[in-house]
Amino acid sequence: MAWLDTRQKLEILADAAKYDASCASSGTAKRQSTRGAKGGIGSTEGMGICHAYAPDGRCISLLKILLTNSCVFDCHYCINRKSSNVRRARFSVEEVVDLTLAFCRRNYIEGLFLSSGIIRSPDYTMERLVAVARSLREDHGFRGYIHLKTIPDADPDLIREAGLHADRISINVELPTQAGLTRLAPEKSSARIEGAMGRMQAEMIDSADARKRYRKAPRFAPGGQSTQMIVGADAANDRTIIDRASSLYGRFGLRRVYYSAFSPIPAASAVLPLSRPPLIREHRLYQSDWLMRFYGFSAQDVGNATDADTGNLPLDIDPKLAWALKHRDSFPVDVNRAPRTMLLRVPGLGVKAVNAILHSRRWRSLRLEDVGRLTTSVAKVRPFLIAADWRPVALADRADLRPRVTPPPRQLDLFGA
Question: In terms of domain of life, where is this protein from (predicted)?
């Protein structure tokens, strides 16, 4: 490997990290850089820290890099796989620490997202990742956010130490099914990945229990754990992906499951698809994830919104609207009498709108125009609810309801504000 300076390494390893979507900073513990015996640098709250998120929910205020893009594994979908002809680079522990502190002092970032290819062995790589977090916390009093991508085959003691220094830890399940993992990443195993997730969950439960009894007991990954699935690299349909995500939430108490649309890579393996899936498919999966986490939908409910033949969610309408169109017998609902669970199932009504409706209807009967002030599209709402001055007699049983509530295609303005 040719000698590279820090700027060149940063260019290579920051670009290599862009395929990992699971870098949000929600759920971290509050820390103040001005308090404590040692003081500190960085904070996840307060003055000088700006939480910036992309429209799809990704956090963009972290230094997001790989320790190295060299890897002993040969996963077909990964641009950094052993057989890939890419430019390689590797940071030392000290370089990552210095970069993090330098960016934080300039107020460019609020923390660090650190992952890595596997070099030498899983234990050796995990030791390097932990060494970065330990140095930041103990040697430099770093109070910012740290997210470490852990390695399921590493020693459990190393993963436990990672959780003591990091705010969030994560292990990527990579693909929704074991069959897909066996075909595209034969060195990895769903059983080993889930075993590591289970151990991390047990550590978090033990830590929470200890803190109830001992105020100064150490925290273990206060931001929880997350994972990521690649969409479109194998034959798994949306129904399978939704069921897998629901299972992971229920069994391991994950904070988030992230979805990353497969992106074709240079010199790709012949077993990979020739083209990427539409990005809107990734967006629909995030919407379905939101329905399960915040709207009371089960995996079976969301699965019912998929196409019976392909098992995929429709791309032209959101999953909640797709579910409502398939369950016309559940609508319309009375906005002045319906329980919260049914109001959350009305297309076009979000959690904030439903909360506002529940509060307002205690004092007066709501009219359609009142509901219209709480949503961006009253046209989508009208066929599915009853208000004081509105009953969808002409719309409720229409066979052509879908085209009436489907948003029309719109050409985006390249130079628009």
Answer: Bacteria
- Domains defined for the chain, CATH in brackets: 6-267 (3.20.20.70), 327-405 (no CATH)
Rounded Cα distance between 130 and 148, Å, is 8
Residue type, 201: Q
Beta-bridge partner residues of 230 = 260
Q: Which residues contact 395 (CB under 8 A, 6 or more apart)?
A: 382, 383, 401, 404
**C-alpha distances in angstroms, 101 versus 54, 133, 135, 142, 236?**
24, 12, 11, 8, 42
Q: What is the pLDDT along the chain (417 residues), one digit of tens a residue?
A: 557 788 888 888 877 777 776 655 454 555 444 445 444 544 444 322 334 444 345 455 788 889 998 999 988 888 888 888 888 889 999 999 999 998 888 878 888 889 999 998 999 999 999 999 999 999 998 888 888 999 988 999 999 999 999 988 999 998 999 999 989 888 888 899 999 999 999 999 998 898 888 888 888 988 889 999 999 888 899 999 999 999 999 999 999 999 988 887 776 677 787 788 888 999 999 999 999 999 999 999 999 999 999 999 999 899 999 999 999 888 999 999 999 999 999 998 999 999 999 999 999 999 999 998 888 778 788 889 999 998 887 666 666 677 777 777 666 665 654
